[in-house]
Specification:
Helix 4 packs across helix 8, helix 6 runs antiparallel to helix 7 and helix 6 packs parallel to helix 8. By secondary structure, the protein is mainly alpha-helical. Helix content is about 85%, strand content about 0%. It has one domain.
Length: about 220
């Protein structure tokens, strides 16, 4: 008894059943990416006026003295960085036993938040083309099955669906990759700003004087 046709039928059924979820996910991702594009453009426009890390580095002494961001720096930084500075100021002001641990936890939470937003886009970079390929191969199977029965209409509709899903999948991948490259650059700058602010607010002048004396004696 040849059971291969049975396996073939099962795989064909599974493959055909996956077509609708693939198409639905591709449409959902396309809608999500369109909405995301609007937010990306708005953030891009806002970041045009933000100060660079060089300007922030010039204000480290003021930040260390006041344990807060100067107004001219604060209004030119992203909101999530200013919120981070406010939370950090509260921890530094309290100066309890586990201050260093709380600061490290706060820094890691903010970095995780930034990476989480980037991971969403990077996921579509891989998922989009893969779903597009699945959306191409599945209709090809049904189209070829219709061709054996002389159903040219089914073959035509299957080919149209196959090619359109390919275009959508590749479009999602290319667009998401473009966004991910720019978001990665923003992430690096934001992490650098967080590190500078953290170092400035937690810097102890007495420790710095001790280090200078040590260097002189050496």
């Amino acid at each position: 008894m040849n059971i291969f046709p049975v396996f073939q039928t099962i795989l064909y059924t599974i493959s055909t059943a996956l077509l609708y979820p693939v198409v639905i996910i591709l449409i959902s991702l396309s809608v999500w990416l369109i909405i995301y594009t609007g937010g990306f453009i708005a953030e891009f426009v806002q970041r045009k006026k933000f100060c660079s890390t060089e300007n922030l580095a010039d204000a480290l002494e003021k930040i260390q003295a006041k344990h807060d961001l100067p107004p001219e720096i604060k209004r030119n930084l992203p909101m999530h960085i200013t919120k981070y500075s406010e939370k950090l100021k509260k921890i530094v002001t309290e100066n309890d036993l586990f201050m260093n641990e709380k600061i490290e936890n706060l820094l890691q939470q903010n970095e995780h938040y930034l990476k989480k937003d980037l991971n969403k886009v990077q996921l579509i970079v891989r998922v989009g083309p893969s779903l597009g390929l699945m959306g191409t191969l599945i209709p090809m199977g049904t189209g070829l099955a219709g061709l054996t029965q002389g159903d040219m209409a089914q073959l035509s509709s299957s080919l149209i669906l196959a090619f359109t899903t390919t275009v959508v999948g590749i479009g999602l991948g290319v667009t998401s990759y473009f966004f991910s490259v720019i978001k990665q650059e923003w992430l690096n700058k934001d992490c650098q700003c967080l590190a500078l602010i953290t170092e400035a607010m937690t810097k102890n002048p007495e420790d710095q004087k001790t280090d200078q004396k040590t260097r002189v004696s050496i």
